[in-house]
Design brief:
Elements lengths: L1 E4 L1 H12 L3 E4 L7 H11 L6 E4 L3 H13 L4 E5 L1 H16 L5 E6 L13 H5 L6 E5 L2 H18 L3 E6 L8 E4 L3 H8 L23 H31 L15 E4 L6 E6 L3 H13 L4 E6 L1 E3 L3 H8 L4 E6 L10 H12 L5 E6 L9 H12 L6 E3 L5
Parallel strand pairs: 2-3, 2-4, 4-5, 5-7, 6-7, 10-11, 10-13, 13-14, 14-15
Antiparallel strand pairs: 1-8, 6-12, 9-11
Helix pairs in contact: 1-2, 1-6, 3-4, 6-8, 9-12, 10-11
Length: 391
């Protein structure tokens, strides 16, 4: 069944079908419509979820931690300063290995104040202990929210579904919705976890740990992320198996990346989120002119898909890496440094350049992507470039 939905509405629809035990939220632009729409489902009796309207995003995540520790399925949604305010408790959720699901509408961080989209918020939390998966469209936002709990509960890690503020959160498009019965069967019932509030079997999680044990706990987190690589693709394959849509081609959930015309590409752009669409349009047009170019969209950012990216880049001579955050005092953006690290470890002889784009939702269209391809085609080019910067 198809519905015309924004990215926010698609996420709320998926949440309705999941019917989590607890949703705690403090609305913030541009994710406000998610708790707003979901609260309508609660008020109308369409779900039995306990909706907790809290006084801050810090409290929202704290409530989710308490609920998940008691064995409940817990969810929330936020963006920008809200995600930053959650930071203290985001790392608690990760360290306590609680399978919480968070929808984050990527938005710029102040100051100066911007309510518009970029990736500066989510990049702050890249090592906070959360699986991070980026949706490139309202359809993917819906699909990935449904996949989030099966992933989280399998590996005992929280999952953050990221999507671009306004460009995905407010984009209205056709979204293929599963039947309620099919969606709920796919998500399934949560496994039995220890209840931290069972007074007959008291259990402490996340409490004080001496130096003799803390390191081992963190090693356990590391190993969980390594096992998550396989689980993310397994859940993706299962989702495709119960879905009537065609997932053939480079957009399959079986892979943590989406590839476009990369098999023989001499120049490749690597990007996160919705900007991949503009990059693909540019690549398609250049292909018609005989240029061997391609695009890789990274969907699963944590755990980082190093091997898949290296394989997709093949023998490409030049790679342009697009970051939607400003690298302050660094040699490049986060995605740029991740990719460069992978190439260095693999001893790949590939030229790379960083392209900073879309900050505070500065326009990024196929013409800008075409300019990036043209820059990379030159014999020499700067390592860090700012796209569509005024002045």
């Amino acid at each position: 069944m198809q519905k015309i939905l924004t990215g926010n509405e698609a996420i709320a629809e998926a949440m309705r079908q999941i019917e989590p035990d607890v949703v705690a939220a403090y609305p913030i632009t541009p994710s406000t419509k998610i708790p707003e729409k979901f609260s309508e489902f609660v008020a109308n009796g369409e779900v039995r979820t306990e909706f907790v309207a809290v006084e801050s995003e810090h409290s929202a995540m704290s409530a989710c931690i308490g609920a998940a520790a008691a064995g409940a399925r817990a969810m929330t949604a936020t963006a920008s300063q809200g995600l930053a305010l959650m930071h203290e408790v985001l790392v608690n959720a990760g360290g306590m290995r609680l399978p919480i699901v968070l929808a984050n509408a990527n938005r710029a961080l102040s100051a100066p104040l911007s309510i518009h989209g970029d990736h500066s918020d989510v990049m702050l939390e890249r090592d906070s202990g959360w699986i991070q998966i980026f949706a490139g469209s309202p359809q993917e936002a819906y699909d990935l929210i449904l996949q989030a709990f099966p992933i989280a509960e399998k590996v005992r890690l929280p999952v953050m579904i990221c999507f671009d503020g306004f460009e995905t959160s407010h984009l209205a498009t056709n979204v293929e919705i599963l039947s309620d019965a099919t969606a709920r069967k796919f998500v399934g019932q949560p496994p039995k976890f220890p209840n931290l509030f069972d007074l007959e079997k008291p259990l402490t999680l996340g409490g004080y740990t001496s130096p003799e044990y803390f390191f081992e706990a963190k090693r356990g987190q590391f190993e969980a992320f390594e096992s998550a690589r396989k689980v993310v693709t397994e859940v993706g394959a299962k989702f495709e198996g119960i879905n009537p849509r065609d997932f053939s081609g480079g957009a399959s959930y079986i892979s943590p990346i989406e590839t476009f015309e990369t098999k023989d590409a001499e120049i490749i752009l690597i990007v996160l989120g919705s900007a991949a669409g503009a990059a693909q349009v540019a690549a398609r047009n250049l292909r018609k002119a005989g240029k061997k170019v391609g695009v890789i969209r990274v969907r699963t950012f944590r755990p980082f898909p190093t091997e898949e990216i290296l394989a997709a880049c093949g023998k490409s001579k030049k790679i342009g890496i697009l970051d939607r955050m400003v690298p302050l005092g660094s040699s490049g953006g986060v995605l740029f440094n991740e990719i460069n690290s992978a190439f260095f470890a693999a001893k790949a002889k590939t030229e790379t350049a960083n392209f900073i784009y879309g900050i505070g939702q500065r326009q990024f269209n196929p013409e800008h992507a075409t300019e990036i391809f043209a820059t990379l085609a030159q014999a020499k080019f700067p390592k860090i470039n700012f796209v569509n910067l005024r002045g």
